[in-house]
């Protein structure tokens, strides 16, 4: 297996891009990543997306994008794994380069959520759930998270306001990220006053859906010239695990088993333990998912993930930094593209290019993207070389 590095990265600001098409968003991220890769050209393109075929009325995104970005003749196709789609596309790119099938591969995650408005949009997002037994009964991803949080509060007796720390750290870190949706920090008082959206989830417990595109150019380490203009980041671990799609089919819905197993396998490949990484880009689309992810990572005991959010342990200068450029909560959640943003942001940290959010001399990162409530879990270990 060849060593695989991230040679180029690109992203567009997350937000409501009413004036831009899906293809334009993707093309901008792709061109930025190609420029950042200093002349390395991709031999394959893998696209992560979840909503385009229904919301944007566009399928076969690979063919669309290679034509739009003058990458004719290369292998390309789309990957769908709910919100973990771009992370899944990154894994495909990693495997293509590591196996020697190609020397370089481009990965892009793109989502154009605002191509549709109205109640039908929520129905399209619910396609990520079990269609027969969840979505058909009116369940949505937010309702699913609310059910899990209600159960968690019941089982653990955690204080309702204990989850404020997850929201405040994400919004605070987003202030220093020029590509984030939000640039205003909140405090615990603002969290306590916020409107309940779906009991017990309030406004700040829920990451907003948005448009976005982020891209990464992967290459074999031998392809990187000595005079490369910036540090490269090595992929030392990569794993995908799945669990039952419907929550009622799981023996313990509060155990993010796929997230745990995916972390375990990625860390095994990298030869480390989760505690050996310098920061975590975890899945905080809902604050309850952040707590359950920390427990799945082995950083907190069962039912005690919320305790890590009570002080400053999760802050940039803390022992366990998370969501260093805002996470889904502060940066925004462009659904199928979110995994690519997480990987780009981790690469920026490891390259020492995270601006005011820069962590002191980070060496390793763990990046985990979830599709649904850990129905799919994609974990990568990145290391600066």
Outline of this structure?
The protein has helices at residues 22-36, 52-55, 61-68, 85-98, 119-125, 141-156, 164-174, 188-193, 257-270, 287-296, 327-331, 338-351, and strands at 4-11, 44-48, 75-79, 104-111, 196-198, 201-202, 212-220, 233-242, 279-281, 364-371, 376-384.
Give the key terms.
385 residues; Peroxisomal Thiolase, Chain A, domain 1; 11 strands; alpha/beta; two-stranded antiparallel ribbon; 9-stranded mixed beta sheet; 2 domains; globular; single chain; 32% helix
In the CATH hierarchy, what is the architecture of the largest domain at level 2?
Answer: 3-Layer(aba) Sandwich
Share in helix? 25-40%
Radius of gyration: 19 Å
Q: Which fold name is given in CATH as the topology of the largest domain?
A: Peroxisomal Thiolase, Chain A, domain 1
Count of separate DSSP helical elements = 12
> What would CATH call the homologous superfamily of the largest domain?
Thiolase/Chalcone synthase
What is the H/E string?
Answer: EHEHHEHEHHHHEEEEHEHHHEE
How many separate structural domains? 2
Low-confidence stretches: none
Query: How many strand segments?
Result: 11
CATH C-level class of the largest domain is Alpha Beta
Please report the distance between the alpha carbons of the first and last residues.
18 Å
By secondary-structure content and strand pairing, the structural class works out as alpha/beta
Which percent range describes the beta-strand content?
A: 15-25%
Strand order of the largest sheet: 3-2-4-7-1-8-11-10-9
Average pLDDT, all residues: 97
The description of the largest β-sheet is: 9 strands, mixed
User: Given the C-alpha coordinates, what overall shape results?
Assistant: globular
